[in-house]
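Try this one yourself first.
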């Protein structure tokens, strides 16, 4: 992963913060998204190569990790390599950045009233046991980063192990380092050492892994794109070991 600026700990959802936020807004709907920076300063033309068109307006309904229900309006806007996700629930709004591979989307978002600066998301595709190809999006940046992870310790189809990583950041600069993955609760902890040490938490769905990072204000969700255009996924946090769920129905 690109380490051209210091980040706080890698964070997927900030469960405590976002569970509280969703719970407080469960009657009127709530969620988040990357990209107020994207929407204000960059074009809305997408160059994402996927055949899926996820841009548009959605009705999102979900369940917090504590079991409480919530709902929100969701808008997805393309910005070059990435997507801006914006959830609105009553007077509360959330902003995030998303990347897409095949039928999967991973999003990192910031809580109501908080800045998404430093938040990011990784969407890995498991190419073969022990080998992953990743796309990385950063809040406020329209150019994604790419990363390859090759496991040097660990066995079988499990994610656990130590990986050699190499990639190219949004500025086009190459980097190398290591990544350690350890299963924790329903998800996995991710620790990168590639010029700086970064930590995060992620969830696996078959051959895909969504990981969020940033500070305590950052959260993440991993969606599966359904044939009818709906988005179904899980979201969670580095500080909690359970996930919430969300279904976004296209209007």
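Now uncover the answer:
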């Amino acid at each position: 992963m690109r380490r051209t600026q210091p980040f706080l700990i890698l964070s997927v959802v900030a469960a405590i913060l976002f569970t509280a936020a969703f719970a407080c807004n469960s009657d009127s709907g709530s969620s988040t998204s990357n990209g107020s920076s994207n929407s204000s300063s960059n074009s809305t033309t997408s160059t994402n190569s996927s055949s899926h068109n996820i841009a548009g307006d959605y009705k999102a309904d979900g369940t917090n990790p504590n079991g409480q229900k919530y709902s929100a309006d969701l808008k997805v806007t393309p910005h070059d390599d990435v997507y801006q996700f914006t959830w609105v629930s009553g007077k509360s709004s959330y902003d995030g950045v998303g990347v897409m591979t095949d039928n999967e989307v991973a999003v990192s978002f910031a809580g109501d009233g908080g800045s998404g600066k430093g938040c990011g998301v990784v969407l890995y595709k498991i190419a073969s046991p022990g080998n992953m190809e990743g796309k990385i999006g950063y809040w406020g940046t329209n150019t994604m980063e790419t990363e390859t992870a090759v496991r040097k310790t660990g066995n079988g189809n499990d994610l656990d192990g130590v990986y050699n990583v190499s990639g190219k950041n949004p500025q086009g600069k190459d980097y190398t380092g290591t990544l350690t993955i350890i299963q924790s609760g329903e998800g996995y902890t991710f620790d990168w050492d590639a010029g700086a040490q970064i930590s995060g938490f992620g969830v696996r769905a078959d051959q895909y892994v969504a990981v969020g990072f940033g500070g305590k204000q950052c959260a993440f969700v991993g969606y599966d794109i359904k044939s009818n255009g709906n988005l179904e996924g899980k979201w969670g946090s580095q500080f909690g070991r359970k996930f919430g769920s969300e279904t976004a129905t296209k209007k």
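Discussion: The helical segments are 15-24, 36-41. The CA atoms of residues 149 and 165 lie 4 Å apart.
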